[in-house]
Amino acid sequence: MRLSLIGMSGVGKSHWARLMERHGYRRIICDELIARQLGPIINPDKKSTLELASWMGNPYQSGYAEAQSKYLALEAEIVTNICAEFEEKIKTNERVIVDTTGSLIYLKAQLIRRLRDLTKMVYLKHAENNPHKHYQILLKDPKPVIWGDHYFPMPGEDREASLARCYCELLTFRSREYSRISDCTLEYSFHHNHKTTTNQMLDVIQKKLA
């Protein structure tokens, strides 16, 4: 079975992908593949998501739009390559987990459909009743964020307040998009519960996909 974990950065996709890898799944980490491509631009010795976040910056900075465009172009290239590999091995039963980026939804609809045809999309929901909590997670563990057209500061509003408010609105938009393309949705209270085991996670996914 091939699975793609989708959802916001910081929601737990990489955590579960690592655990599933221990259960025999081959893990494909889109963030790392993008960072590897951007290595010579960012820092040849450090290709972490923290370096990516620092390179991309914030939406009010002058180089952000260019960085956002470059990131999405590389993401599209990487997802295209993943799909091509899966299409070559369409008849194999290899278990694969694709750890996607939070910005997957910004790719062209045709490419998203292609990935959906080749994998089952598992949406890990964020804590919708507490969007400020997710924003605090982002501040503590910075990830590159594609804002699209969802950053719009109000007159007299400082940058920190603008980012916090707009991030909450970004969460609402993305939640709709993730739900739209998902084959299976897992509630935050389930996948974020420290008592949930990998076997339980995989069992619930299989039952929801049946």
Outline the structure in words.
- The chain is of the alpha/beta class.
- The chain has a single domain (2-203), classed as P-loop containing nucleotide triphosphate hydrolases (Rossmann fold).
- It has helices at 13-22, 30-42, 49-56, 64-88, 109-118, 131-140, 159-181, 188-191, 198-209; strands at residues 2-6, 26-29, 96-99, 120-124, 184-186.
- The radius of gyration is 17 Å and the shape is globular.
Helix content: 40-55%
Return the CATH architecture: 3-Layer(aba) Sandwich
Instruction: Determine the strand fraction and express it as a percent band.
Output: 5-15%
State the end-to-end distance: 12 Å
What is the CATH third-level topology name? Rossmann fold
DSSP strand tally: 5
The structural class is alpha/beta
Strands ordered across the widest β-sheet: 2-3-1-4-5
Work out the radius of gyration.
17 Å
Q: Total helix count?
A: 9
Q: At the first level of CATH, what is the class?
A: Alpha Beta
For CATH, the homologous superfamily is named as P-loop containing nucleotide triphosphate hydrolases
Total domain units:
1
Which outline best applies? globular
Question: Strand-and-helix sequence, N→C?
Answer: EHEHHHEHEHHEHH
Spans of at least 5 consecutive residues whose pLDDT stays below 50 are none
The chain-level mean pLDDT equals 90
Summarize the main sheet.
Answer: 5 strands, parallel
Reconstruct the topology from this structure.
Elements: E1 2-6, H1 13-22, E2 26-29, H2 30-42, H3 49-56, H4 64-88, E3 96-99, H5 109-118, E4 120-124, H6 131-140, H7 159-181, E5 184-186, H8 188-191, H9 198-209
Parallel strand pairs: 1-3, 1-4, 2-3, 4-5
Helix pairs in contact: 2-3, 2-4, 4-5
